[in-house]
Amino acid sequence: MPKKKLFIPVILSLVGTSAYLITKKRKETKQDNIRQALTKSLSQRFGKENIKGYWIDFNNDQGLEYACGVNIENDDAVVDSYTFIFNPENNETYSFKIINSSFK
């Protein structure tokens, strides 16, 4: 008799865990696709060798546009930091604002 009582919670636990893992994997895949698109867009704009790092704020509930930042090294060893908006639907970056310039 006790085996019947444990059957339903075990099944519910397995379903819940499976749903969580599937959702997590989809989110990771979406974020990886956004990272690749952003890297390609930044490489076209600044040149691949000039990019010294970037960040993306994935804490956007709607997921339409993302706040981002990038560090770009110029030819004269100056590193400029910019913030901007990235739209993953059309791979568009816009609203670039310089926030810092420093020597390497």
Task: Give the helices and strands, then pairings.
Elements: H1 2-46, E1 51-56, E2 66-73, E3 78-87, E4 92-103
SSE-based structural type: alpha+beta
What is the distance, rounded to the nearest whole angstrom, between the alpha carbons of the first and last residues?
Answer: 72 Å
Percent strand: 25-35%
Q: State Rg.
A: 21 Å
Q: What strand order characterises the main sheet?
A: 1-2-3-4
Number of domains: 1
**Large-scale geometry:** elongated
Give unreliable regions as ranges. Answer: none
Would you write up a description of this structure?
With 104 residues, the chain is of the alpha+beta class. The protein has 1 helix and 4 strands, in the order αββββ.
What would a concise description of this structure say?
The protein is an alpha+beta fold. It has 1 helix and 4 strands.
Features:
104 residues; alpha+beta; Nuclear Transport Factor 2, Chain: A; four-stranded antiparallel beta sheet; 1 helix; 4 strands
